[in-house]
């Protein structure tokens, strides 16, 4: 019995002492290297095949579409706004001059995204969309700024009615350059808003104005231009101080107004002008700020 117990203990100990051996030799390493190299070679062949197919496909694309001006050359460039109407200011010639659009190229040779970005950066536009219509139509849609007044500020070097140093402003309060002849022809009849003092950051091209007095002056121009007619419409508006605006009408009447209740003040002006004309007289100046006993100065009788 003693011998039997010893035999069992030795068997158990021999099992505990078994080792997992991994045999390595130069020959085995060599075959592992060959196996790994084969895998890399297969991957390289697949990659080269894909690149070759891409290159051939690119050449085929260029020959069939990009260079094929006979079938896909630009034949029409319709230009409209987003409602399908003709733009007021932007023209085909200005688009070609500012974007470098090659009218002899294929429609597939153009980067429509880049063309859209260039058009959006024009002073007179806010949005643009360019789409291809097979076989040879390049459709351009734009949204334009409509100017309502010229700006004038000696302190910032902004000169009224000047193509180089002047700025127009749209009804949303964004200043922009008068960059085309069609825009100039329209804008030369617009009123002028003059600001006596302003900081650089308050009036910046392409950005909404931050000058409080100028904002109220623009409100006055928009309101007067919409509600008044003929010689009652504004010729210019000056931001006098922190609460006062001065307007001269096309009829040469000087009008003093406050920033506030502009609609009510303009209604009083219309009544006063009508009352003066009924008596054969003209207003030279009027102060609309007082609600009662409005100061009025008349010109000589007609």
Provide key terms for this protein.
Ubiquitin-like (UB roll), nine-stranded mixed β-sheet, single chain, three-stranded mixed β-sheet, alpha/beta, 302 residues, Rossmann fold, elongated, 2 domains
Would you write up a description of this structure?
The protein is an alpha/beta fold. It folds into 2 domains: 71-144, membrane protein fhac (Ubiquitin-like (UB roll), Roll), CATH 3.10.20; 147-298, Cell division protein FtsQ/DivIB (Rossmann fold, 3-Layer(aba) Sandwich), CATH 3.40.50.11690. Helix content is 39%, strand content 20%. It has 8 helices and 12 strands. The strands form 2 sheets. The protein has a 9-stranded mixed beta sheet, covered by helices on one side. The protein has a 3-stranded mixed beta sheet with strand order 1-3-2, covered by helices on one side. It is elongated.
CATH topology of the largest domain: Rossmann fold
Q: Quick one: CATH superfamily of the largest domain?
A: Cell division protein FtsQ/DivIB
> How much helix, percentage-wise, in residues?
25-40%
Globally, the shape reads elongated
| CATH class designation of the largest domain | Alpha Beta
The percentage of residues in β strands lies in 15-25%
- Count of structural domains: 2
| Computed Rg | 39 Å
* Count, helices: 8
Give me the strand/helix succession: HHHEHHEEEEEHEHEEEHEE
Indicate the CATH architecture of the largest domain: 3-Layer(aba) Sandwich
Give the distance, in angstroms, between the N- and C-terminal Cα atoms.
149 Å
Average of the residue pLDDT scores: 84
- Structural class call reads alpha/beta
Structure summary, number of beta strands: 12
Strand order of the largest sheet: 6-5-4-7-8-9-10-11-12
- Unreliable stretches covering 5 or more consecutive residues: none
Largest sheet: 9 strands, mixed
